[in-house]
Specification:
The structure holds two protein chains of two kinds.
Chain A lengths: L11 H32 L1 H10 L1 H26 L3 H31 L7 H4 L3 H26 L4
Helix pairs in contact in A: 1-2, 1-6, 2-6, 3-4, 4-6
Chain B lengths: L2 H6 L3 E5 L2 E5 L37 H23 L6 H20 L7 H26 L2
Antiparallel strand pairs in B: 1-2
Helix pairs in contact in B: 2-3
The chains are: A mainly alpha, B mainly alpha.
Chain lengths: 159, 144
C-alpha cells in the first residue's frame, strides 16, 4: 500500500514504526500463550511430552516451511531494492505457496485429531486426564491463532 | 544555539547540514513561563525518513546463509527434543537455541542493526515487558 498524501509525501518512518509495533504486539500476544503452555507443561509434564511427540514430524516440517517463507520474503525486499521486480514477485509467490502448504499441513494435523474425537469439549477428550485436556485446548488455540495470522499476512502481500 | 536565541528565549529553527531542527530554548525565564526544553534529536541522522535509495546492489547470499543457519538450529532443537540429549536441561537448551534463532531473524531478515535507536528501544521495552510478565508469573506459580 503506497497511498500518497496531498503533498506527495510518503511517511516511510510512520509505516516502519507501525510495522514494528505490530510485530511487538505479536511477540507479547504469543509470548503470553507460550508462558501459559510452559506453566501447564511443568505441571502436567508427562501428558504434555506424550501428546507433543505425536506432532513432532509435522511440526518440524511446518517450521521448515516458515523459515523458507521468511527467507523468501526477506530476499524479495532485497530484490525490490535492487529493482528486480520479476524476482521479487516470484519470491512473494514462494511465500504465499509456503503459507498455503502450512495451512494444508495444519488441516491434515487437525483432521487426524478430530477424526479420533480429540477436539475441544468432545466426549473423547473430556474422558482423558486434566493434562491431556489442557494440552489439546492450548494446541488448538495456539496453532489456530498461528494459522489465522499466517493466512492474513500471506494474503496481505502486495505482489 | 545562536546568541540571539539565548537572549530572547523563543523557539528557534536552526539550519544545520541542510536539516531543520526545532529547538525550544532553555532560558524560559525570559518569557516568564516555565518552558520545558525539548531537545529532540529524532530528526537526526539515524532516523532517515526514506528507504535507502543507493545504487549499491544488495547481495542475496546472506539471506540464503541465514536460512541455512536457521535450518541447522532447527535440527538442533529437534535433536534435543527427540533424543532427550540434555535430560533436565532440554527446556533450557531449546530456549537458548530459540533465542539465537530469533537473533538471526532480527538481524539478517529484518535488518534490526540498520534501524534507528527508537526501534531498538521499542524492542528492548517489548522484551523487558515480556520478561517481567514471565518472571512474575513463574514466581507466583512456584511460591503460591
Amino acid at each position: 500500500m503506497m497511498e500518497k498524501t496531498i503533498a506527495g509525501h510518503i511517511d516511510y518512518k510512520g509505516k516502519k514504526i507501525g510495522m514494528w509495533l505490530f510485530l511487538f504486539t505479536e511477540l507479547l500476544f504469543f509470548g503470553g500463550m507460550f508462558l501459559m503452555y510452559s506453566i501447564f507443561r511443568s505441571r502436567y509434564r508427562r501428558n504434555f511430552i506424550c501428546c507433543a511427540e505425536e506432532n513432532l514430524l509435522l511440526g518440524t516440517i511446518n517450521t521448515v516451511i516458515l523459515l523458507v517463507s521468511s527467507c523468501a520474503i526477506a530476499t524479495a525486499v532485497a530484490a525490490v531494492r535492487n529493482g528486480n521486480q520479476r524476482l521479487a514477485v516470484r519470491l512473494q509467490m514462494v511465500t504465499i505457496a509456503c503459507g498455503i502448504i502450512f495451512l494444508g499441513i495444519k488441516y491434515v494435523e487437525w483432521a487426524a485429531k478430530i477424526d479420533v474425537g480429540l477436539y475441544p469439549d468432545s466426549a473423547a477428550l473430556l474422558a482423558q486426564g486434566k493434562g491431556t485436556i489442557l494440552f489439546f485446548s492450548l494446541y488448538y488455540v495456539m496453532t489456530g491463532c498461528m494459522g489465522c495470522m499466517y493466512w492474513q499476512e500471506s494474503g496481505s502481500l502486495p505482489l | 544555539m545562536t546568541v540571539q536565541t539565548m537572549r530572547t528565549g523563543l523557539p528557534a529553527m536552526i539550519l544545520q547540514d541542510s536539516k531543520i531542527r526545532i529547538v525550544l530554548a532553555l532560558c524560559g525565564h525570559c518569557l516568564d513561563l516555565s518552558v520545558s526544553a525539548v531537545l529532540s534529536h529524532y530528526l537526526g541522522d539515524d532516523d532517515v525518513n526514506e528507504p535507502q535509495s543507493s545504487s549499491v546492489t544488495i547481495a542475496y547470499r546472506p539471506y540464503i546463509n541465514a536460512c541455512a543457519l536457521l535450518l541447522v538450529l532447527l535440527a538442533c532443537t529437534v535433536m534435543v527434543a527427540k533424543l532427550n540429549l540434555l535430560a533436565q536441561y532440554s527446556v533450557l537448551a531449546a530456549l537458548g537455541i530459540s533465542t539465537v534463532k530469533a537473533g538471526v531473524v532480527l538481524m539478517r531478515f529484518m535488518h534490526l542493526g540498520a534501524e534507528g535507536r527508537l526501534i531498538k528501544l521499542m524492542l528492548v521495552m517489548a522484551v523487558a515487558a515480556l520478561s517481567a510478565i514471565i518472571a512474575l508469573t513463574f514466581v507466583d506459580v512456584l511460591y503460591r
